[in-house]
Amino acid sequence: MTRGDWKRVSKGRPCPVCGRSDWCLYAGPDDAPTAAICARTESNKPVGSAGWCHRLRDDDRRPARIIRRAVPMVAQPQGAGPIDFGKLAADFRAAVKLVDLQRLAAGLGLTVESLQRLRAGWTAGHRAWSFPMTDAAGQVLGIRLRRPNGSKFAVTGGHDGLFLPDGLDVDVGGRLLVCEGPTDTAAVLDFGFPAVGRPSCTGGVGVLVELVKQRRPAEVCIMADGDAPGQRGAGNLAAVLLAYSPAVRIISPPAGIKDARQWKERGAKAADVAAAIDAAPVRRLTIVVSRQTQRKAGRRHGRTRS
């Protein structure tokens, strides 16, 4: 079959293998597809990052047998010794084909450039896209994996860290945006803001503190998901970062929009994000000294002067 023989699934014509209405492709008549490329169900015929090919009918129109295999959601360690996550991430990145990265970017509503800055890779052994997680200095601590169907897991043996883009341009006096996950970080990078990603709405606090201490931005803005866990995690992170940053803000996409990437897909521009940041209240650390402490300090000061 040629590329033109394949059609994208939809709600009206879901995938004949997994029954879902996104990511997959099919060929043949709409009412009786002859083949499918499913992003969720494996067969013995992998098709790059698109998924697995399933032959649904033989020439005599009899249904063909679909081979299914359970896919573990946690990757197994490679080799008996310690994993060199930096080398592994570099190998995954080198394995990426530009055409596949372009397809991923188009499917996520992102640019190839932002995914490349986050060192996106491809691991055929896991059938997943890879994004390295680093410490504040950029040393790879672990690797997040994302399957074409959106399911997420990680290479076993690693540790959570930051999705730290190449060429992060934030320093003393600048503004740093903190996102959740690599694709939200890529979306904010596409908007043109300096951004890093945390591994979850509660993770990466210690590594973020180290990054803020090193880079000393004038302000940190947390891009939080609109749901309760996202808001709670952002509030907890802000309370910690206030001890290390002169100012902290929290923003979220408009109501009804899940996260930064969906906000971008809905047509948001850099000016919309900048307006949301400017409208958000600034949080600053306030030190309150009790009167009793002031009196004690006054008495000590008086004795010193005498």
> Which sequence of SSEs, written as H and E, runs from N to C?
EEEEEHHHEEEEEHEHEHEHHH
- How many domains is the backbone divided into? 2
Which ranges are low-confidence, i.e. pLDDT below 50, for 5 or more consecutive residues?
59-80
Instruction: Based on the coordinates given, report the CATH architecture of the largest domain.
Output: 3-Layer(aba) Sandwich
> Span from first to last CA?
96 Å
The CATH topology of the largest domain turns out to be Dna Topoisomerase Vi A Subunit, Chain: A, domain 2
What CATH first level of the largest domain would be assigned? Alpha Beta
* Biggest sheet layout: 5 strands, antiparallel
Radius of gyration from the alpha-carbon trace, in angstroms: 24 Å
Which helices and strands occur, and which strands form pairs?
Layout: E1 6-8, E2 25-27, E3 35-38, E4 46-47, E5 51-55, H1 85-94, H2 98-108, H3 112-117, E6 121-123, E7 128-134, E8 140-146, E9 152-154, E10 175-180, H4 182-191, E11 195-198, H5 205-215, E12 219-223, H6 228-241, E13 248-251, H7 260-265, H8 270-279, H9 291-305
Parallel strand pairs: 10-11, 10-12, 12-13
Antiparallel strand pairs: 1-2, 2-3, 3-5, 4-5, 6-7, 7-8, 8-9
Kindly summarize this structure in a few lines:
The chain is built from nine helices and 13 strands. The protein is an alpha+beta fold and 306 residues long.
Describe this structure in words.
The protein is built from 9 helices and 13 strands. By secondary structure, the chain is of the alpha+beta class. It has 2 domains: 3-55, no CATH class; 85-279, 3-Layer(aba) Sandwich (Dna Topoisomerase Vi A Subunit, Chain: A, domain 2), CATH 3.40.1360.10. The protein is elongated. The termini are far apart.
